[in-house]
Amino acid sequence: MRIIDLSSPVNADAYEPDPVTHEILSPRDGALHMSAEMKEHFGMDFDPAVLPEGEFLSLDRMTLTTHTGTHVDAPSHYGSRSTYGTGIPRHIHEMPLDWFHNRGVVLDLTDEGTGVIGTPDLEKAFSRIEYVPSPNEIVLLHTGADRRAGTPEYFTDFVGLDGDAVHMLLDLGVKVIGTDAFSLDAPFGNIIKRYQESGDRSVLWPAHFVGRDREYCQIERLANLGALPEPYGFMVSCFPVKITGAGAGWTRAVAIVED
């Protein structure tokens, strides 16, 4: 069995539209912090100098969004109301875990340019590998966008799905769709330009907005999909971090390949 990492890192040194801050407290800083906390909260005096090397434990403080790095979008990310179920979409902590450990299939879309593709493009990609996903399989889109991760172009140069393409996958019983791009939709600038030219509101984030009518999750900002040895026959594990009330949760997504 091999485990292939499909996740991109959270890196405060990389370019992000919403910058990441990462404050590192060294083990020495941790000792001073612990001593101060014990004094403030419990009235206890503790000299950190008695610790080995005067050190305790390191600590990392970070400021970032739940959409930084590889993450799973919950239905509540797509809007505050849904036309299915109770009318209130579920947050990430409410999603069933069995959605996120299942068989996977990867589609090679690396020849597609920046913009949006639809159902015919996905049908061609499935035809090339002579495979159609079964219900609950996790479909991964290998666009090659992860090659630009950490640069401004990662957020502007990639391909996304239109609404019909998402409906096609959901009609097959797929509940989780992943991409190595910043978004399952086309780039923001591309979407807004097409809307301004056409006046057609259906071009505005259709992949996400499908989630207002049908419950599903996206994995965005995957990486390393080109390392998968075959387009199917592997497992995907992508459990999201359990953040109460959140519209997304980070995940360490991996593929499990049986040799």
Describe this structure in words.
By secondary structure, the chain is an alpha/beta fold. The protein folds into 2 domains: 2-11 and 66-257, Putative cyclase (Glucose Oxidase, domain 1, 3-Layer(bba) Sandwich), CATH 3.50.30.50; 21-63, no CATH class. The chain is 20% helix and 22% strand. The chain contains 5 helices and 13 strands. The protein has helices at 27-42, 119-129, 163-171, 188-198, 206-209; strands at residues 2-5, 21-25, 59-63, 71-73, 101-108, 115-117, 138-142, 159-161, 176-179, 217-220, 232-237, 248-250, 254-257. Strands 1-13-11-5-7-9-10-4-12 form a 9-stranded mixed beta sheet, covered by helices on one side. The longest helix has 16 residues, at 27-42. The mean pLDDT is 97.
Summarize the structure.
This protein has five helices and 13 strands. It is of the alpha/beta class.
The total of helices stands at: 5
- Uncertain segments are none
Helix percentage: 10-25%
What is the CA-atom radius of gyration, in angstroms?
21 Å
CATH architecture of the largest domain: 3-Layer(bba) Sandwich
- Per the CATH scheme, the topology name of the largest domain is Glucose Oxidase, domain 1
Spell out the helices and strands N to C.
EEHEEEEHEEHEHHEEEE
**What would CATH call the homologous superfamily of the largest domain?**
Putative cyclase
Major sheet details:
9 strands, mixed
Task: Trace the largest sheet across and list its strands.
Answer: 1-13-11-5-7-9-10-4-12
Mean pLDDT: 97
When the domains are counted, the total is: 2
Distance between the termini: 5 Å
- Count of strand segments: 13
Given this structure, which CATH class of the largest domain is correct?
Alpha Beta
- Shape assignment: elongated
Protein name: Cyclase
GO molecular function, one term: arylformamidase activity
Pfam families: Cyclase
